[in-house]
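Input.
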Amino acid sequence: MLLPLFLTVVVGLLLLMVAAGYLAGMRWFIISTPSMGEAAPVGTLVVTVPAELADLQVGDMVTFHPPPAPEQVYTHRVESLVDGGGLRTRGDINGAADPWTIHDGDVVGEASAVLPGVGWLIRALPMVLIGTCALWFLTRLVADAGQRTAFRVLGLSLVVSIPAVVLRPFVGLSVLTTRAGSDGAEASVVSTGVLPITVEADGGSSTHLISGEVGTVAVPSLAESGHYQLASSLDLSPIGWSVLALVCGLPLLWCLVVGLPPEAEKDTQIAQIEGAAP
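Output.
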C-alpha cells in the first residue's frame, strides 16, 4: 500500500508544480521529431517562458506555431532577424531555413530548460502509475505473503516493461536523406533513441551515434526496387553494459533482499494457523 500512496503523492506534487508554472506563463513540450539534433533529441522535455519577439536573438531556441499550420508547435533555433520585424528559424540538422517568417503572434515562448529523455519518462508515467496501483490492489487479494510478494515482483517488472515496448525510447533510427549514385548510395541517419547505437548497412559501412547525432552510412549496392536495409544495435561502453545488467537484474535483487514476507506477518500467519488447530 505504501508504494501506490508514494506514487500518488509524487504525482500530486508534480501536478501542483505544473499548475503553478502554467499560471506563471511557462509551457511544456515534448520533442517528437529529430530536427534539433543533439541539442534537443526526440523525447526531450522543453520548458518555455514567455518572450517578446524583440528580446530574441540569433541562436536562441524558440517554440512557436508555424504560420502555415497554426495548430502545430515547433521548437527550432532563431537563424536570422528580418528587417521590419519578424525572424527566420531553422532546425539544427535541417538542410535549409524554415519557409516562413515568425511574428509576435506566432511565438509561444523561449526555451529556458531543455531536458533530454525526460519527455519519455512523462509519457511512461501514466502507464506505470495506473499499472502499479492496479497491481497493488489486486495482489492484496492473495492471502499468502510469499506469493503476494512474488506476484508483485513479477507484476512490477511487467508494468515497467510495457512503456518500454509501447514507446520504444531506448533505440531508434530515422533516415534523413539518401543520395544514390552509380556505385550505391549514401544514407544520412539520426539516432532517435536514448541509448548510443551502431548503424550498419548490409555490406556497407557503419557509424556510431548518440542520441540526436547525425551520421552517414555508405550502401554499396541497391536492390532492384531501389531499397536498402539498415540495422541498428546497442553500442554501450563496459560501464554502460554493467549498468544495463544491473537494471535488468533489479527484480532478482529485490527477491534476494526483500523477497521474503516480514517476520511480523509470518508470526501472524503462524498464530492464525495455531488458533485454527483443534
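The chain has six helices and twelve strands.
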